[in-house]
Structure formats: structure tokens, C-alpha cells
Amino acid sequence: GIIHALDELGLRPDVITGCSIGAIVGAAQADSNLQGLEDWVRSLRRRDVAAFFDIGWGMKGFIDAQRLRAFLHEHVVSEESQIESMASAYGNVATDLGNGREIWFTKGNVLSSVMASIALPGLFAPVRYNGRWLVDGGLVNPVPVSLCHALGADVVIAVNLNADILGKHLSSRKADLAAEGGAFDGILGTIRNYSSNLFPGNREDSPPGMFDVLASSVNITQDRITRSRMAGDPPDILLEPRLAQIGLLEFHRAEEAISEGERCVKRMRPVIEYTME
Q1: CA distance 26 to 40
Q2: What is the pLDDT confidence band of residue 44, given thresholds at 50, 70 and 90?
Q3: CA distance 175 to 162
Q4: Cβ neighbours of residue 150 closer than 8 Å, sequence gap 6 or more
Q5: pTM
Q6: Over the Cα atoms of the chain, what is R_g?
Q7: Is 196 buried (19+), middle (13-18) or exposed (0-12) by CB count in 10 A?
């Protein structure tokens, strides 16, 4: 939604960087396939999202990595795509699980780099790449302004997806559960309440389930790291869509998220136009 709204203002990025879900959207945009990704994600229903999950003994993550990679090949970039040959300059970020170092992907196979950048611990299995185990880049650089500058960007427009989430995630989850009769249906409900189901009646003192704790912990970590990183290397324009009502795995609500991205740009239009003069 943000990309579309910026395009309407005549702003088309020459350099695109991303981390985690931003690595996926960024790759689609850099490879001129954003519309294909958008068409697919707008068509998603809850049962379609559930199909990506795999719960069983010996699992290394909730997400079926092979199924996800097949999706990325079909809707984002081809299996053979190389970063160096993309239509726009592109890079994404992952984290070395062994030493905590930030890994920048600015060349090589696009899909492999994206799989590493989105490997959120607990949901995705770590990705083996060049002898290292890599996980989600959000652990070290959730909004990679620094990478954008390194790739030659003169003016950086950053999108922070965590700004509106802290303190609201758990309360909104309880409201959603009450509205839906107590839990998500099927496999998503199993994942959301994997270690401790919400107590009957949704009492205020009921402990959240493992998934809610994981999601909230990730949000806190990424928000704090983002603040710290951008304090030292600030973007020229910061866009912060209001996404507190949308949960971490609720991709079937893409319509709402895309619309909020468009509204975010409209709210910031005076700042954008002033900065770009």
C-alpha cells in the first residue's frame, strides 16, 4: 500500500532494502512483480494461511519451508533469480545465529536470501547458507536504513511496521478471541495457544499462550532495536502505519494492511513533499 501511494506521488525507488516481510515485498518490487504478489495476498483466506503450517514431532519451526519456498517462487521471484540481475538495486538482512552478526545480502540467489531474512525463530527453521545458520534479520536491523545508504541511496524513506504495536497486541488478541467465540479455528488456533490456552471466560489474569508471548517479545525487541539503529542512522522520511489490530500471522487481512499503508502515506504527504522538494 505504501509503495502504491508513493508511486502516485511520482516517487519510485531506485534502491530497495528490506528485512523479514520487507524482504519479500522488496524483492517483488525490485523484480517488477509486486502486482502478482498483491493479487495473491488479497485472495488469501484463513484456511490458506493455515496450509503453510506444519505441526508434528521433530519440527524445527511451525512453517513448512518447502511449501513457503514454492510460494515465493510462484508469486515473488523465480528460483533462478539473482540479486545482481534485478530491475532495481536490492538488498536484505539476515542474522548469523552463531555469532549474532548482521548479514547483508547484496548478491546471490534472491530466494535463498529471502528465506534467511524471514526465518523468525520459533516459526521458521534456521536457513543454512555458506556454512552458517541464518535467522530473521529483524534481530539486528529491522529497518535497514544503513543498507539503503550503503547501496547508494541519497534520500531514504523508511517503513517501520512495529511502531503502533507495543502494548496493544495482547489486549487486541483477547478482544478478537471473544468476538470469535474463544479461539481461531483449526491449525491457527493450535499454534496460537500451543503451550497455554486462554482460560475459560478470558479472565484478565489469564496468561497468554506461547504464540502471543513470542509475537509480543519479537515486537518489543524489534521496536527497541529499530529506535536505536535509526537514532544513529536516521532516514529522511519515516512512515509508521497503524497495524496494532493485525496479528503476526494474519496474512488473510492483507486488504486492511494495504489500505492502512495508503492512508499512512496520505497522512505524511506534506512531510514527504517538503522533504523531496
Answers
A1: 16
A2: confident
A3: 20
A4: 91, 104
A5: 0.84
A6: 18
A7: middle
Q: Residue 16 is inside which H or E element, if any?
A: strand 15-19
The number of beta carbons lying within 10 Å of the beta carbon of residue 127 is: 21
- Check: CB of residue 15 under 8 Å from CB of residue 271: no
The label of the residue with cell 499503508 reads 261
Mean pLDDT (the chain, rounded): 84
Q: Taking the CA of residue 276 as centre, how many other CA atoms within 13 Å lie in the half-sphere pointing to its CB?
A: 15
**C-alpha cell of residue 268:** 505524511
The C-alpha angle with vertex 242 and arms to 50 and 114, in degrees rounded to 5, equals 50
Report yes or no: 239 and 264 within 8 Å, Cβ to Cβ. Answer: yes
Task: Look at residue 233 and give its three-state secondary structure.
Answer: coil
Q: Are the C-beta atoms of residues 159 and 59 closer than 8 Å to each other?
A: no
Q: Which residues are catalytic?
A: 20, 136
CB 33 within 8 A of CB 76: yes
pLDDT band at 54 (very low <50, low <70, confident <90, very high): low
> Residue 24 in contact with residue 72, Cβ under 8 Å?
yes
Helix axes 21-30, 34-42, angle to 10 degrees: 130
> Which amino acid type is present at position 4?
H
pLDDT in tens, 201-248: 455 666 776 667 777 777 788 888 898 999 999 999 999 999 888 877
- DSSP-assigned letter for residue 207: P
Q: Which three cell numbers stand for residue 265?
A: 502515506
